[in-house]
Design goal:
Elements: H1 7-34, H2 37-40, H3 42-50, H4 58-72, H5 81-92, E1 93-96, E2 113-119, H6 123-132, E3 138-142, E4 148-153, H7 156-166, H8 174-189
Antiparallel strand pairs: 1-2, 2-4, 3-4
Helix pairs in contact: 4-6
Length: about 200
């Protein structure tokens, strides 16, 4: 501010306004800190805990995969893997479809998601599935005791691989939603994936 006309006055005014803003901010922090009811409400605490989602470390995933593969090696049947995934989708899976041509607030294209929900104890099984699928998908844990496991396939390459593996193998009304997924991808990415028919064998 040296040599600037009225520089001293502007500097003083800026200092006063900054100090005033800090006083108001700290006042609000102190008021909120004293409002114990905001933090001791059981409903707020429980909701806060339930909706926290955390990722799982790669080390924990690898350890679970090794343990699962060791214990279940004789039961793994690659020929039936597509049928197993189809049954898993029908039992514990969910197909989430965004609105066609929709984008997120960050202007990113929204893709469908295939989500499996299970208990954290089944991490080894889902880690095996992930490794069999070439590493696609990601894991999240949530819930009151961090016991709910979610395996999420959300990239287009992974979704197409999953569709190819279970195409023609579904046996329940979830096939309707599966065909909606196929239709969505065909329109959005100009694909020609055929409609999926129920397996009635």
């Amino acid at each position: 501010m040296h040599g600037f006309t009225y520089g001293g006055y502007i500097l003083t005014l800026g200092f006063i306004l900054t100090t005033y803003g800090m006083i108001l901010w700290f006042r609000d922090v102190i008021i909120e800190g004293r409002a114990w009811s905001l933090f001791t409400s059981q409903s707020i605490l429980s909701n806060h805990i339930y909706f926290i989602s955390k990722t799982i470390s790669p080390e924990k995933i690898e350890e679970a995969l090794i343990n699962f593969s060791t214990e279940n090696k004789r039961y793994l049947n690659k020929d039936q893997f597509g049928y197993y995934l189809a049954g898993l989708l029908e039992g514990d899976g969910h197909l989430s479809l965004p609105v066609l041509r929709s984008k997120s607030s960050l202007n990113r294209i929204l893709n469908p998601r295939i989500v499996f929900t299970s208990h954290i104890n089944n991490l080894g099984l889902y880690a095996y599935i992930q490794s069999f699928l070439g590493g696609i998908g990601r894991f999240k844990i949530s819930g009151k005791n961090q016991s709910a496991l979610r395996y999420i396939i959300g990239d287009i390459k992974g979704i197409l691989l999953f569709i190819n593996l279970i195409h023609g193998k579904l046996r329940t009304p979830k096939n309707i939603r599966f065909n909606e997924l196929i239709k969505f991808l065909n329109i959005k990415y100009s694909l020609e994936i055929p409609e999926n028919l129920l397996d009635i064998s």
